[in-house]
Amino acid sequence: MSMKNKELEHLLQKYFKAPQQLKEKLKSIDTNQLSFKSSERSWSVREVIIHLADSEVNAFLRYRTIIAEPFRETYVVDEWKWSQELKYQVQDITHYLDLFESLRLITYHQLLLCTDADWDKYVKHSYLGEITLKKWLKIYVEHFEQHMKQIDKVLSQTTFDVK
């Protein structure tokens, strides 16, 4: 890896560690907590996990586009519509966790091969504007962190009687 930037190195480590952090958090969650929704328009932990996997698929494709076909338009998805139409609430999370981890690992190792010039390549997003590879990495690190906080919030709202 030719980049020298400490911020990028820090972001890369956070990006790499995300799957393990998610697995650790899920060790203490039971089935009821996994499916709990505080309202009809909120997501359960299950839905957040599947969303993270679907987002990682999109991130994987965006990364590849930034490197191989820079300067193109990229697509936007309706996250709520995906969660409803793809029936996140009834899906088993096992394969989604594996998918998230696999895509992160593949992409992490490819990111280590990026040249300094690669980090300035970008795609065009309809409302985020130009997304350079540097910005892409920051977006997906922050996206994961936001959803970990969301999981914590959902878990704090679960109040099941333990007898």
Radius of gyration: 17 Å
CATH class: Mainly Alpha
Shape: globular
Main beta sheet, described?
2 strands, antiparallel
Order of helices and strands: HHHHHEEH
Looking at the structure, the CATH topology is Four Helix Bundle (Hemerythrin (Met), subunit A)
Q: Please mark out the parts with pLDDT under 50 across 5 or more consecutive residues, or reply none.
A: none
Helix content range: 55-70%
* Number of separate domains: 1
**In DSSP terms, counting alpha (H) and pi (I) runs of 4 or more, how many helices?**
6
Average pLDDT taken over every residue: 92
CATH superfamily: dinb family like domain
- Structural class assignment: mainly alpha
Explain this structure:
There is one protein chain. With 163 residues, the chain is mostly helical. The chain has one domain (6-34, 42-157): Up-down Bundle (Four Helix Bundle (Hemerythrin (Met), subunit A)), CATH 1.20.120.450. The chain is 61% helix and 5% strand. The protein is built from 6 helices and 2 strands. It has helices at residues 6-26, 31-35, 45-68, 79-85, 94-111, 133-157; strands at 122-125, 129-132. A two-stranded antiparallel ribbon has the order 1-2. Strand 1 and strand 2 form a beta hairpin. The longest helix has 25 residues, at 133-157. The protein is globular and about 50 Å long. The model has no long low-confidence stretch (mean pLDDT 92).
